[in-house]
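Blinded run. Sample ID left blank on purpose so nobody reads anything into the name before looking at the predicted structure. Input follows.
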Amino acid sequence: MDFPTVLVVDFGAQYAQLIARRIREAGVYSEIVPSSVPAEEVLARKPAAIVLSGGPSSVYAPGAPQIDAALFEAGVPAFGICYGFQAMAQSLGGSVAHTGDREYGGTPLTVTTQGRLFGTLPVEQNVWMSHGDAVSKAPPGFTVTATSTGAPVAAFEDVDRKLAGVQFHPEVRHTAHGQTVLVVDFGAQYAQLIARRVREAGVYSEIVPGDLPVAEVLARKPAAIILSGGPSSVYAEGAPQVDPTLFESGVPAFGICYGFQAMAASLGGTVARTGDREYGGTPLTVTTPGSLFGALPSEQSVWMSHGDAVSAAPPGFTVTATSTGAPVAAFEDLDRRLAGVQFHPEVRHTAHGQTLLEHFLFDIAGLEPSWTMANVVEEQVAAIREQIGNRRALCALSGGVDSAVAAALVQRAIGDKLTCVYVDH
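Blinded prediction complete.
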């Protein structure tokens, strides 16, 4: 039986395998062909569509693979990704420039014309970039549909010829239509655990330091923000504070422990030294289920670790739970999509903590569980390979877990081009 087949033209990056997988996950059969296959042989296979993969090269590098323009004159729909996007642009009369604005990793993208490619997706979203060169001018007949700081032409399309492309990598899970949750770390190791719990819920997360200016946090276009716990009292000299503009941006936010108190203080609530320190398993009474607690039990055990406590919620917030040492143990403002808890939902000692965290992510912030950890290693290996290209790499290896894992990933990506040096410290 003949199936419509999408051919993925591989320019030397492992992402070709991942692209082919994503196409199959979408219910369409795909195969990979090397970029050295002549255009006439590619077309002789009668593909239903062609996807041009990323690659480790610059289009200006000696011997870099080029694309025969005849590939785009056959009427076969084609889509370029990263290097394939640049090669398509160059082949069809566009311009690719050394802009000097290298982008790597999660990058804010602005959709300027939604067209067929972006449709009803958010105008502001987070995508995964890995490029030095950038398309500076689209080919004749193409509409520029998106831009980023380092890519003036980050996406384009020519609907009449069924051609399109993007500078970023739609095949990796890090490109999630802006669904990145930023965990603001106020100095507690729990920030790592919070980020893990968010990912376990199917939402991509990253950690940023608590002293990062609000403007920079918001510039990363987070889908939601979580304020972590921390070792400080909000009254301690030099204790991290939260700029109220963070909560005026419209981005859903959730405060945990110290982050909960900092949110309350920033928004006009009251944080007091009640003298009723709570640590460890603590009985909690849900007074108003709301969206945060939903159908969870009205009496439950949670993990507390605090001296100060919120004694009055900020204006507009509903108090949803209380404990002996925390008269305001949880609150929410659904209109502004803000909420917080005095306890730690991220630890297993809080019986319903993961469910409560998911209530914030899905019911209050409106996110979708579209990210999976299954392909993290594969994506990281591909990203490393693309970043290093044909160069060699040196790894200082201490024998600890961090450096050993890093070395294993790089070795898987570039093989014997990696040299590891043992550092005895």
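Unblinding after everyone has recorded impressions. The chain is about 25% helix and 30% strand.
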